[in-house]
């Protein structure tokens, strides 16, 4: 130590670390901007103003809109730098994975400096799009890289989880009744499906979204057994049970991929960071799981692991009998409800038929009355028309008689 008590070795280490990080950042800036510092874009610059306006109008989660803006002429510089970085990373894909991680994180930092005048929330949204664009292309080059032992750790973790398939929710103190699980199906199945889907995603944020979705389903499953919200201990126990049941493919590689190439704010803040931290704790618990952690003796734990022990047959038979009895009671209750529903439906149907017949009889009676009235009106009109015809004939006959009488009398002799 020096005179002031500060260890010289530590200060030199910090100085060397800062120098190395500054050198990497300057290298990335030179690759990204063509110089050790980002270009100065005054507010009066028309192109910069257009870029700012376009990115500020971008809706959250609109990755397609981000790609359209990035391919526009005003963002040509940003697009060319992204393309150059991707080509460089693909050309040097044999670099150690930690070196690749440093380059990607430095690229994130350099890209974010271009939007340092933006609000933090907008910068976060833009960088999530950048991460998805970059890591979707680089996934095949950096995921489960040959320079690390991720593949071996994946196999070891899968074997470890497979050897623990005998662990029950009661051993993990998961607050959910086993009887209900056997009868209605595993309520953690949606969470199991979500954590398995993580391996199919490429972008770190999409993998984190699967972890968040899985965790939310765990909370939903726990809420079915308790009237009160689940606490942190219950959630962690449920998440451990989900991991044991799912045995997700390449779990270690997926988690390391998110740590190495994900945005720092995604892992250090918000729900996604909390859920990912709990997943890391669940995996660490599984790797160090022993008898006392499950409230059993070390001998029992070793016997279960070596398949030398199994739950007592009597307990299994009692559990199966209890589950069967509960299932029969549930089926009987459903059958009674079905019979009651059928009786009510038959009564309603009979009442409906009677109402239809009543309405039909009433309509038939009204129709008969209408027909009778129409018939009487037709007969009356016919009588009136025939009477008027006879009267007209009589008038014509009288006129004819008068004409004949006039003709027979002849002209009168007025002179006489």
Automatic annotation (TrEMBL):
Source superkingdom: Eukaryota
Protein name: Uncharacterized protein
């Amino acid at each position: 130590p020096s005179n002031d008590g500060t260890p010289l070795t530590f200060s030199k280490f910090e100085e060397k670390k800062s120098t190395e990080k500054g050198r990497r950042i300057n290298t990335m800036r030179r690759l990204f901007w063509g110089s050790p510092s980002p270009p100065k874009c005054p507010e009066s610059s028309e192109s910069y103003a257009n870029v700012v306006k376009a990115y500020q109008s971008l809706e959250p989660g609109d990755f397609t809109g981000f790609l359209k803006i990035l391919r526009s002429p005003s963002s040509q510089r940003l697009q060319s730098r992204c393309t150059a970085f991707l080509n460089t990373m693909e050309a040097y894909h044999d670099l150690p994975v930690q070196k690749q991680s440093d380059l990607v994180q430095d690229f994130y930092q350099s890209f974010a400096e271009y939007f340092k005048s933006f609000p933090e929330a907008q910068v976060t949204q833009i960088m999530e799009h950048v991460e998805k664009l970059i890591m979707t292309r680089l996934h095949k080059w950096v995921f489960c890289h040959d320079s690390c032992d991720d593949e071996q750790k994946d196999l070891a973790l899968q074997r470890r989880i497979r050897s623990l398939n005998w662990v029950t929710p009661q051993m993990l103190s998961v607050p959910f009744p086993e009887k209900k699980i056997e009868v209605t199906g595993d309520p953690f199945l949606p969470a199991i499906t979500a954590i398995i889907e993580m391996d199919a995603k490429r972008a770190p944020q999409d993998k984190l979204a699967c972890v968040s979705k899985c965790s939310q389903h765990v909370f939903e499953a726990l809420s079915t057994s308790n009237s009160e919200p689940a606490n942190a201990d219950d959630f962690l126990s449920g998440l451990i049970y989900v991991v044991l049941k799912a045995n997700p493919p390449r779990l270690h590689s997926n988690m390391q991929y998110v740590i190495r190439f994900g945005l720092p704010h995604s892992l250090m803040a918000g729900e996604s960071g909390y859920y990912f931290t709990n997943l890391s704790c669940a995996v660490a618990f599984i790797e160090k799981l022993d008898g006392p952690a499950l409230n059993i003796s070390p001998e029992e734990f070793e016997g279960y692991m070596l398949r030398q022990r199994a739950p007592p047959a009597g307990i299994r038979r009692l559990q199966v009998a209890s589950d069967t009895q509960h299932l029969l009671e549930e089926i009987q209750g459903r059958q009674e409800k079905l019979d009651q529903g059928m009786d009510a439906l038959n009564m309603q149907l009979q009442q409906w038929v009677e109402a239809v017949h009543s309405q039909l009889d009433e309509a038939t009676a009204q129709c008969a009355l209408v027909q009778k009235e129409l018939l009487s009106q037709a007969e009356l009109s016919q009588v009136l028309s025939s009477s008027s015809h006879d009267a007209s004939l009589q008038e014509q006959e009288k006129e004819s008689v008068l004409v004949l009488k006039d003709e027979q009398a002849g002209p009168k002799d007025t002179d006489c």
